[in-house]
Amino acid sequence: MNEEAVQAAIDAALAGHTTINLEIYYWWCTALMIAIHAGFLAYEMGASRSKNALASGVKNILAFAFMIPTFFAFGWFIYLSFYNWQPFAEGFSLLGSIDVAGDGQGGVPWSAGMGPNLQDQATGVFWAAFTLFACTTASIYSGAVIERIKLSAFIITAVFLGSVVWIIGAAWGWHPAGWMVVEWGYRDVAAAGVVHTIAGFFALGILIPLGPRIGKYNADGSANDLRGHNMPLTVVGLMLIILGFFGFLGACLIYDPAAQWVNIYGIPSNLSAFVFNTLMGMAGGIIGAYFLTRDPFWMMSGALGGIFSVAAGLDLFYPPLAFLLGFVGGCLIPIAAKAIEKMGIDDAVGAVAVHGVCGVWGILAVGIFCAGYPGVGDIPAISFIGQLKGAVVMMLLGFVPALVLGYLLRMFGLLRVRNEVELLGLDPAEIPSIGYPEFAVWAEEVEPARGLQRSYRDDPPPRRDDVPPRRDDIPPRRDDTTRGRPAYPERPQPPTRRQ
Amino acid sequence: MNSSPVEAMEGAAAIFTFANNPGMLQTIFWVMCAVLVVVVVSSIIHEIRVGSKVARRR
Fold first, then answer.
1. How far is it, in rounded angstroms, from Cα A230 to Cα A246?
2. Superfamily for domain range A3-421
3. Binary contact (A112, B19; C-beta < 8 A)
């Protein structure tokens, strides 16, 4: 083997390692992102009252499960083909600018890349990472509507958010050829806008037609605090979400072991930049929320809000500036949550404040502190006006479709559970298992609920001999006597008519 | 039944079942979509039935 052949063999081996490393990187980012959903599961179950804990969990699990096949069906196709979709740009053309024949072909569910393919080691892992981003949007929205939304309505709205709405935003503003990027220089490196702002304002759009929980507001309009049943579970859930976000943020970089890492816009970046500002933003958010509230719920929400406050410029901020941005985000959360509550909107977990408001703050912060930072190719430099317009687009993209869909579902009576079900609790009404059987938190409701589930599922009623006998039901045995009398005292006989 | 198009590993690309049969792929895809829709509809029916039962009992 001559020298050139040896070199060619080495290059081929290195190329193979490069591709494999890329797969491994996104594989583990995706795995880590599942911690986000474990966290949201714990967070929302803890934030629910005990009569709704399991229903909140079922909702969260199903959001995850429905998002995966639907994102396979159309979400990935939308991302690849809608990047230049502006139906109102020049007259009205609903489908004219969708790139179906070009890049979109790679996302068609029956294309060669959308399945096991020995010559395509990228599509699967990128699809998986984006699918988990989609699941995250659904989980963000999920917490706001707990304890009164119908499960079916939640599935429909979550699929609409995760597999349609947010991914349109991602195609526009989180794609190197997205029209917001190319025309406005919109920059949102770690998805503050395309994930958090859209999901937060989508939640707001559903909360308006959904209405508050029974008991949230008094007749005079003052709000009651409907506390969840397990604050420690909620706080641990929030910490798990933060863990998962390290996978989320890592997957926002394009990993190429053989070259410079780049962000989603093709602009050089690296993980070191990400980790500086993720940690500093998180710390700022916790401390900001602690400063205003001293409440562990808001402190952990502040940790998330702090990360989202720096997410749009995660690879650009000086770390102490990221801390300050996170601090402001952490302070904004309780203020925004209170303002939303005063408006009569019952956001059970503060999702609009944490994700929506901090997402907008993060987008604007890039316009304020990073204006002029250059792009590559056709991408203009960052500008405040570009970021401001981008924030407005993200808010409207989340809010308006949700509001329309929410009112449509409400019109057909499909959005909210009946008042009787809400008062009884979603668990006893709809869930065939009990969250806390040892604790009689709603003992008087358990028996009717068991009957309800039994009758719905057409299970046969329990046979008499399945029930442990009561003392009175045990007949005395003839030979079981004490001093010639039966073991059990004879019960007094009811008087007869003759007497 | 070997439903994958691959008969030899040399130069193999898409190896999944029915990859060379677009009609079958689309059929399977639409079956998956139908399953999702049926589950959502069954959930709607479940909620309506449960809701009316709770309302009757209270």
1. 26
2. Ammonium transporter AmtB like domains (1.10.3430.10)
3. yes
Q: In this structure, are residues A356 and A395 in contact, taking their beta carbons and an 8 Å threshold?
A: yes
A168: which 2 tokens?
Answer: 């349109």
What DSSP character marks residue A417? -
| Partner-chain contact A117 B15, CB within 8 Å | yes
**Residue A24 contacts B where some CB pair is shorter than 8 Å:** no
How many residues make up chain B in this entry? 58
| Residue A411, amino acid | M
Tokens 């904004």 identify what position?
A332
Residues B8-41 have pLDDT tens digits of: 888 889 999 999 999 999 999 999 999 999 999 9
Chain B residues close to A118, C-beta within 8 Å: 12-13, 15
A105-152 residue pLDDT tens: 888 999 999 999 999 888 999 999 999 999 999 999 999 999 999 999
pTM attached to this predicted model: 0.85
Element (H, E) at A486: strand A485-486
Q: Are residues B46 and A430, on separate chains, in Cβ contact within 8 Å?
A: yes
Radius of gyration of chain A (CA): 28
Is it the case that residue A463 has pLDDT exceeding 90? no
- The residues with which A166 forms a beta bridge, in sequence order, are none
| Distances from the Cα of A256 to the Cα of A178, A264, A267, A408, angstroms | 22, 12, 13, 45
Determine contact, residues A229/A55, Cβ cutoff 8 Å.
no
User: Which of A66, A70, A118 lies nearest to residue B13, judging by beta carbons?
Assistant: A118
- At A15, the pLDDT band (50, 70, 90 cuts) reads low
Please answer whether residues A42 and A233 qualify as being in contact, where contact means their C-beta atoms are separated by less than 8 angstroms: yes
- What is the per-residue pLDDT across A168-202, written as a single tens digit (0 to 9) for each? 999 999 999 999 999 999 999 999 999 999 999 99
Q: Which residue has the tokens 């503003």?
A: A173
In the numeric block, which tokens belong to residue A477?
């045995």
> In this structure, what token pair is assigned to residue A320?
């102490």
Assign A471 a pLDDT band (cuts: 50, 70, 90): very low
pLDDT confidence tier of residue A103, bands split at 50, 70 and 90: confident
Residue A406's Cβ-side half-sphere holds a number of Cα atoms within 13 Å equal to: 21
* pLDDT > 90? residue A353: yes
Q: Indicate the residue of A69, A115, A429 with minimum beta-carbon distance to B32.
A: A69
Say if CB A205 and CB A402 are below 8 A apart: yes
Q: Measured between CB atoms, which of A155, A424, A455 is closest to B43?
A: A155
C-alpha span between A400 and A397 (Å, rounded): 6
The interface pTM score, or ipTM, of the predicted complex is 0.89
Domain chopping of chain A, boundaries: 3-421
Q: Using a CB–CB cutoff of 8 Å, tell me whether A208 touches chain B.
A: no
